[in-house]
Fold these 2 entries.
Entry 1:
Amino acid sequence: MKQLILIALRNLISHRRRSLMLGGAIAGVTALLVFLGCLSSGVRRSMLESATTVATGHLNVGGFYKVTAGQSAPLVIDYPKVRSIIEKTLPDVAFVAPRGRGWARLVSDEGSMQTGIAGVDLKNEPMLPKVLKMLEGNLQDLAKPGHVLIFASQAKKLKVKTGDSMVYSVLTDRGVNNTVDVRVCGVAEDMGLMTSWNTFLSRETLARLDQTNDSVTGALLIYLKDMKRIPEDMDLLRKALTAEGHIVMDHSNKAFWMKMPEVNREEWTGQKLDITTWEDEISYVSWTLQAIDGLSFLLTSVLLIIIAVGIMNSLWIAIRERTREIGTLRAIGMRRWRVMVMFVIETFCLGALGTTAGAFLGCLVALGLNALAIPVPEGAQFFTMSSTLQFSLDPGRILGGAVVITLCCTAVSLIPSFKAARMRPVTAISHVG
Amino acid sequence: MDRMKKLLSALLLAALSPALLLAAGSLTKEQMVDLLKGIDQRVKSPGDYKSLVYIEQREKDKPDVAREALVYRRDLDQKLMILFTKPKTEAGKGYLRVDRNLWYYDPTVGKWERRTDRERIAGTDSRRQDFDQSNLAGEYDPAFIAEEKLGNFAVWHLKLTGKPGQDLAYPLVEFWVDQATGNHLKRQDFALSGKLMRTSYSPKWQKVYSETKQGEVWFPQEIRIFDEIDKANSTLVLIQSVDLQALPENIFTKAWLETKSR
């Protein structure tokens, strides 16, 4: 085997130009795949970071309360009891944050917009100060009643800055118009699509706006120590809540607000709880990840086909050039399968070297761009979920991509190698060309 | 001694205040309730009702949007339907109220959505109540504010507070009623927080004779609604024609609206 590897490597070196061209093409495709993979991982990381700060916990116990069959509200009634069930049932809870959920018109002197409202209690939200990057103002002021935290794009649209006054106007769940005056306590850096329409208000102020009492919240956001336990914990929680007499809705991988039209159509009143994961709550933006992954797959597939054709062609040429050599090797006793393995190893070596170089190149480009923190245009932030271009190296994914490309190249070489191995020694030796 | 004088003065003022108010043109509680009942009665149509409505919406930084709609009412059964006919993008969309539920139909998705009874009609500042029958006397307790002049009109200025247990979009309303005709000319709706939400003017009123009522049914020809929160927004509602002929029996159904939407 050692001899075969040596022959393969010497052969690659002796046909330097051809090897470099083919190896370069393999490296290019691998680099592209790795680069797009890093982008996809970066977007996923940004999405997880922004989603689990702005909109969702790792797991959520939300739900709907219907006073009449036609009017539902995203509320959990008597949430301290539900919270205690969560804390008793799940073994690895890092913390549980009750968070109000609302939807209202936010009006400034210069403009207005419909916004989602996250009613937060800062003492229950240790992640917020770590993740939100304040451009101006003070996040801690959010603990004071009547203060709102907005994001840069909202501040631009509403033409407000820290200290300015605005009004939230809402039709409450009981159908009464209500307003609350708020003051901007700070402006945070945008974090993609979700922060384009979400604002933060103290829970007390949101309760005043929505006319709800202290025992009511929008959802209980559960943060776990190990996110791999999400499916298991979801099942545990469903069983525990049902056992305690709560009605739990069937799992549906949609954000809570996307379920409201369906819930409104249903003929029931009272409370139903809904357990969702962070991925469910951002299902409306996860298509961006699928789009990047789909694009990577499509591009890589097309390029791989082109490379496969190239590899096949060059092997045919190599076999033709080395027909007499094959004949001689066969004549001195080399078995057919060893001839085949010799050519396969040659392609495998080319593929392995090419993909290794490509993976390094892809990683270097991704790390370089990451270090440059290239700002993303506002429109593109919907896809990148971050104000700067973020790449993340996922070793498993990079290794997987390199292995797949190497194996594809090797597989392509099987047919010409097989043909070479089937040559009769007499015919091969007497071959002229 | 001074304290005694002050007390006597206060007692005298309290005793004379009803007389002073009457002299200034005040209304008693009963008179105000009768006034509201009168308004409800004047716009009430016991039979069927159909009107052609033009709704123009103005919003800051957006082009004006004009819509035309047909409003169908059967007040005895509390039924209401609003069917948009223009522009083309809105044609076929509609609202239907059945048993206190307001449904919205969008033919582009072919689905019915249950909406809150107090939602903005087609995203404008108008509400379902602006097109529906009136029940001011049943929903609100009136209080007298003043006798005023609104332009050339002498008006009663009333403050209406929602009665307990009533589901109202605006729990507090100020009302300006024309002394000569009994029609309301101006209305201000306040949020639960006490903030002024919208001001609407109904300067022109028309009447049509109803066979069923054996009397006249009044309707505002023009309603101008101004958003007091988002000051740049306003809505103009023109009720262009009213027809009190009997409507087909099956008109207040989802199937009927769907057929009209095709």
Note: The first helix of chain A runs from residue 2 to 14.
Entry 2:
Amino acid sequence: MMRKAPARTPDLWTVPRHVLKLLSYIILPAFLIFLWWALTVHSTSFIFPKFTKIVSSLKNYWMTAHGMGELWSSLRNLMVGYAIAVGLGIIVGAWLGASKAVRQVFMPVIDFIRSIPPPVLLPLGVVLIGVGDDMRITVITFGSIWPILFATIEGIRSTEPLRLSMSSVFHLRRVDHWWRLVLPGASPHIISGMRTALQIAFVLIVISELMASSSGIGFEILQASRTFRYADVWAGAIVLGLLGVVLNLTFGLFAAAILRWRTAESRARGMS
Amino acid sequence: MSDTGGRAVDPQAVLQVESLTKSYQPDGSSPVLHGVDFEVQARELVSVVGPSGAGKTTLLNCITGILRPTSGDVRFAGGTVDGPPDRLAMVFQDYGRSLLPWLDVMGNVTLPLRRVVRDKARRAERALHVLESVGLNGAERKKPYQLSGGMQQRVAIARALAYQPILLVMDEPFASVDAQTREELEDLTLKLRKEYDMTIVLVTHDIDEAVYLSDRIIILAGSPTTVRGNLDVRLGRDRDQITTKALSEFNELRAIVHAGVRGQELHP
């Protein structure tokens, strides 16, 4: 028989969900922008320019073909570096997660490598790979792969032993064993690793552009700050913030789609 | 053929367990099972009954090839089991774990078939047929968690049936459902064995269930566990929850198994 979803626990002041969304995405930001504007409207400070100046910088500096080009250059590096981190992290993580022997051999070396902060690799990267996008992508991948790798190992290790028995009794094909049994089971872990990795990759866009770079949003902000164009620096920070929000929202949709079974399952069991 | 201790080996036997001893210690000390011996003939429904902790699961894992015996032999369809044999299917106690929540009923039932039946339409056809047999018509697009426990176990049974096994092994299959559902699933098992003409090994700690369903009961007891009794159940093929359970033979068998499980003398 069908199970009914349990009634949601009543709140003291129940606010409908869409009202909350409207509040959090429009009204609160609008209020903060107003506050920013109000506090700087008479500003003569060099470092805290009038908000209107920041807005005009947004319009005249960032919302131009040049500004968007820089943004795209950063975004492309981020996506390529992150995609490699996800692919490699899941493959290596699955390999390590499936075998205790393999883990025992490789974990000490992996622990050593991941302890190196990625920015340290920048000078080495410049020497070894050069100053182009390849180097920046490498730094982003290197920095963001670890949460994915470790989450995948944990996810694979925590596969239900009963499901492994089921797989071997029914002689599931390798491809079905991995794609239909093990990886979907590990997906909640993997997704949470990917979420952390995305934050790291995002920070590393800027860091990877701080050295020996001539393009990208991090470079542009650095350049603006070196030439005392603080309105452009603030505007750049806003652009980065907006990019972060868009990335998080996109990731949220992706994660929700992958983990739909889990949300529905826990709701059916009355645990949500 | 290996040495069977002088007993005649029945070539008809689907499953032969021969002086099976299993210890989890590397040196083979303190075994869980000691010298377990029994056979299952084609089309028989044999229950393995024993108290909790009697090594029923260990025995099952040896039969399904998940564990290797310390000594002795398990033979399935004529060959020695040294890994999960082909054409053996299993229904696990914990349907919540054995079914995959990210696949719908159809996906779960066809999962083991992906290797055996290449054609997708034929896989679906086979799945729909067994789903009808277990009384789940129209549920193929449902996710397991949208179904009750009893229906989830029906999905697991359908998955095993669709695989068309020579031997169906059921590990405490009805231990996690309520009494009413349990009776329904017991009757479903009787119906399916007729319909599919199958050989079934059922592991259970429930004595009534064992007597009600079986042609023969293997009683496990002791420490280490040995076979304490090998009991024929002559209640006919047509059984009914009310009339069969009211038979005096039913109650006699029940008492015998009960005594056996407790380690007392058997009076058949």
Note: Chain B has a mean pLDDT of 89.
